[in-house]
Amino acid sequence: MTLRIRTIARMTGIREATLRAWERRYGFPQPLRSEGNNYRVYSRDEVEAVRRVARLIQEEGLSVSEAIALVRSSPPRELPEAERLGERFWAAVVTLDGDEVTRVLDDAQTVMDMEAYCDQFLLPLLREMGARLDIAREHLASAVIRQRLRQVYDGLPTVVSGPRALLACPEGDHHEGGLLLLGIHLKRKGWRVTLLGSDTPAMALQGACAQVRPDVVALSFVRSRSVGEFTPVLEEALRACSPFPVVVGGLGAREHLKAIFSLGAQYAESSEELVAIWNQVRNAQNRP
């Protein structure tokens, strides 16, 4: 599959005029010409090469010529395994090549252990796609990765004893990738996990808490909200989950730590922090 220069400019953040200037001055990129109308068309490899150059310029401070030279001297096949697979993933998503996306994820799962596959490969892809992709491509990519995380989660054994966690995204938050990853980590630590998933209204939280009586409720806020929007959502969730302890996480919660603590919730960046908070609560409850 090939793409036109307008699409490449939108997907990489490099203006069409800049791409044409690079082509004239540095011979990079090297698009083909479509038959008949002689339009520039770019392959999947060219798209990722442009993206790598842009990243080197923006993040490493290299000049255009230095970045192009580095990309030319270090093709994707010579990159570390996870990075090489990541480049293949982005290239496939850009061209909406679902079959290649599946092959990339299959290859990654084959060469990585479960922890590396989830934490060092799938999670970084989820975090980056909002900045890398337009809406259509982000939907494709996020759906595939959530499906893979769900497969890993469902494939883990379920224990019959141990602490229980109730996991949910609050109402209005549809990004459950981080929640699935938390569920995977907790199941591997011997926890019983009840996963409600995305966009969970307070009434559903209340019913689930009454049914399973969790040791801890974990809420994942990913969508960015103003404090005026965040606070009432969390307040309603805390009322619904009372008297069970609530731990909040996710990118959408990190900017509202003051509100989280003032309302009586806790904040955790990882499953290890969540478990540590639960241990503190348990120890406090057991003190005479």
UniProtKB/TrEMBL annotation:
Lineage top rank: taxon: Bacteria
Alphabetical list of InterPro entries matching this protein: Cbl-bd_cap, Cobalamin-bd, Cobalamin-bd_sf, DNA-bd_dom_put_sf, MerR-type_HTH_dom, MerR_fam, Meth_synthase_dom
Gene3D superfamilies xref list: 1.10.1660.10, Cobalamin-binding domain, Methionine synthase domain
GO molecular function terms listed in the Swiss-Prot or TrEMBL record: cobalamin binding; DNA binding; DNA-binding transcription factor activity; metal ion binding
Keyword annotations from UniProtKB, A to Z: DNA-binding, Transcription, Transcription regulation
Stored PROSITE patterns: B12_BINDING, HTH_MERR_2
Pfam families from the UniProt entry: B12-binding (PF02310), B12-binding_2 (PF02607), MerR_1 (PF13411)
B12-binding domain boundaries: 162-288
Positions of the HTH merR-type domain: 2-73
Protein's name in the database: Transcriptional regulator, MerR family
Organism: Pseudomyxococcus hansupus
